[in-house]
């Protein structure tokens, strides 16, 4: 019976197409901030655990780090159950992903077909391990490499999803002002595109809200909150804001430009 109900739920008539507007994509980005902040908090529970990243913990028959092993295999499992049928999801290792084994859900076709070729996960991967981790993770080794890799994976997926959401932001903006975007796209004017899609005041709100979320979600809670001055945080709130300022927002904008450059293909 469960199977029947599921099949009915997925029939085309019952699926309300997702509507993308500037408001709705911004709402989605705001909700994803929560996931990213929680992801930082969860990863910060473990020390650096550098063996996770190739410091000697070799997996027989696998040329790569423990983190890579976990991510590749988890992506393969999730691909089989349809994760990457959703255009909002982008794998880190798209090479050799197994096909989905489940009936496809009719996701709204909102993006230009070229969107699938925009995937900057290789740069996100490098940045995450080389630059981000050392910013908010304590040094040390507690042996929890598998748990560490699992928390890296969910944080990486959250960051990647947020950055690649730029495709949806860009498509909304293009549809709203095609006359302004088209000449810039034809001229391959990256700078002009960057300027047109930038809203400084929105970026400032994002940074401030993320810092506040890191404070609210990440404060160490005690019963005698008498002296608010002694509140401590699981992740330095200014690091969360810096992460957005220096990497997440700029990369979301890079994805927008990259997507727009192919928009008229
Ligand atoms: O909200 C937008 O318009 C976006 O394009 C998203 C975003 C961001 O990454 O937060 C990026 C560029 C804009 O300058 C403002 C914010």
From TrEMBL:
Gene name tied to this protein: CM2_3
E.C. no: 5.4.99.5
Catalyzed reactions per annotation: chorismate = prephenate
Source organism superkingdom: Eukaryota
Alphabetized GO MF terms: chorismate mutase activity
EC category: isomerase
Keyword Signal: yes
Alphabetical UniProt keywords: Amino-acid biosynthesis, Aromatic amino acid biosynthesis, Isomerase, Signal
Pathway(s) where this gene product acts: Metabolic intermediate biosynthesis; prephenate biosynthesis; prephenate from chorismate: step 1/1
Record-annotated Chorismate mutase domain positions: 145-256
UniProt keyword Isomerase present: yes
InterPro entries associated with the record: Chorismate_II_sf, Chorismate_mutase_AroQ_euk, CM_AroQ_sf_eucaryotic, CM_II_prokaryot
UniProt protein name: Chorismate mutase
Annotated coiled-coil segments of the chain: none
């Amino acid at each position: 019976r469960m199977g029947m109900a599921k099949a009915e739920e997925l029939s085309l008539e019952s699926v309300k197409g997702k509507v993308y507007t500037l408001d709705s994509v911004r709402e989605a980005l705001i909700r994803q901030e929560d996931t990213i902040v929680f992801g930082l908090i969860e990863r910060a529970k473990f020390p650096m655990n550098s063996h996770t990243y190739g410091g000697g913990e070799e997996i027989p028959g696998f040329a790569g780090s423990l983190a890579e092993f976990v991510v590749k295999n988890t992506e393969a499992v999730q691909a089989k159950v349809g994760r990457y049928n959703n255009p909002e999801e982008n794998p880190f290792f798209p090479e050799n992903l197994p096909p989905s084994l489940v009936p496809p859900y009719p996701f709204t076709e909102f993006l230009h077909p070229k969107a699938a070729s925009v995937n900057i996960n290789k740069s996100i991967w490098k940045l995450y391990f080389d630059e981000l981790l050392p910013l908010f993770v304590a040094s040390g080794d507690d042996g929890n490499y598998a748990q560490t890799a699992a928390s890296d994976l969910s944080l990486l997926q959250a960051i990647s999803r947020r950055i690649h959401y730029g495709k949806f932001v860009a498509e909304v903006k293009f549809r709203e002002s095609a006359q302004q975007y088209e000449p810039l796209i034809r001229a391959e004017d990256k700078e002009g595109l960057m300027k047109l899609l930038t809203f400084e005041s929105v970026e400032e709100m994002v940074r401030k809200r993320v810092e506040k979320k890191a404070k609210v979600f990440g404060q160490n809670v005690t019963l005698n909150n008498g002296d608010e001055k002694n509140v401590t945080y699981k992740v330095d709130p200014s690091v969360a804001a810096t992460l957005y300022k220096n990497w997440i927002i700029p990369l979301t904008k890079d994805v927008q430009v990259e997507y727009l450059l192919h928009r008229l293909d």
